[in-house]
Amino acid sequence: xxxRVFLIVLDSCGxxxxxDAAKFGDAxxxxxxxxxxxxxxxxxxLWRLGLFAIEGNxxxxxxxxxCAAFGKCAERxxxxxxxxxxxxxxxxxxxxxxxxxxxxxxxxxxxxxRAATGREILCNLPYSGTEVIRDYGREHMDTGALIVYTxxxxxxxxxxxxxxxxxxxxxxxxxxxxxxxxxxxxxGRIIARPFVGEYPDFRxxxxxxxxxxxxxxxxxxxxxxxxGQKVISVGKIQDIFNGxxxxxxxxTVSNDDGMGKTIQIAARDFEGLCFVNLVEFDSAYxxxxxxxxxxxxxxAFDAQLGALLPQLRDDDLLILTADHGCDPTAHGxxxxxxxxxxxxxxxxxxxxSFGTRGSFADIGQTVxxxxxxxxxxxxxxxxxxx
Length: 386
Description:
Shape: globular
Distance between the termini: 17 Å
Mean pLDDT: 96
Number of domains: 2
CATH architecture of the largest domain: 3-Layer(aba) Sandwich
CATH topology of the largest domain: Alkaline Phosphatase, subunit A
Low-confidence stretches: none
Strand content: 15-25%
Number of strands: 14
Structural class: alpha/beta
Helix content: 25-40%
CATH superfamily of the largest domain: Alkaline Phosphatase, subunit A
Order of helices and strands: EHHEHHEHEEHEEEHEHEHEHHEEEH
CATH class of the largest domain: Alpha Beta
């Protein structure tokens, strides 16, 4: 029987501050604990797989031996953003953090963007995505100017009302911005942020699109594909890797949609990897510092996880993890530098604690070992679970 891996990233679901978190302003953060402290977290499937038994979490929850292998991974890369985290999971260590713009983008960049698009620019500051459309949305609608903003991540984001700049045109503008933001100005992602509605009730739509830089070296996606196996992406995985190494992409509009598509893929015959990102934990609840919303999203995911588990076959490996933290009770609105939980489940997986691993890349090595693919060129070491 063909071997399959379902690698699901609960975007931002970190499990405790890394030793160097204070350097990032993130001392004491713990995304999962913050959700637990709401008193509303109900995730029996994650509990059974070992989420609350991971060392150092100190949850006072009685538990039998979990039915999965469980532990956590530290990040070796210099950063706490989505691209860096996913690339490290896939075997690339980023020694130099991607460029950020805490004071906004330089005049040369804005001038080139104006010349390329024929439009003026509003904002050009680090900003919350929901607040920026509230504060600049009316002026954008009156003038047609682009709302350009950033965050603590290596991103340039462009927001536009769908009635003023149709989605295809906004995508083209972001492609132009991607061409500009290369070399000395390079950022990890250009993000199109369409919105709709009337002031003050503007709301972002599911037509977001990310334009990433390509990985600087081959990843596990490339080596799995080179071995003749499938690499099926669900959610923004395709954007994060700029399509590199992916044989089939599936876009999603929500966590619910992402899990629904994953369950459908589990019913198919294929050999290889199904790589899933569930972004709403981060975008809808973490950045918005909404612990109750984050908790409800985890509860909803757990219910869908209960629907996925019976679909797994004897030679399947399920891995649940994250890419960074975004503690909904932390100050500010940015990601938090945390360990990521790792739960590995399958018929041939030995239930056990594997403690704390030194890199996210150990996940990718484990995926490749399960699939019988040579990953010797990638970072990390496979976890001994089978």
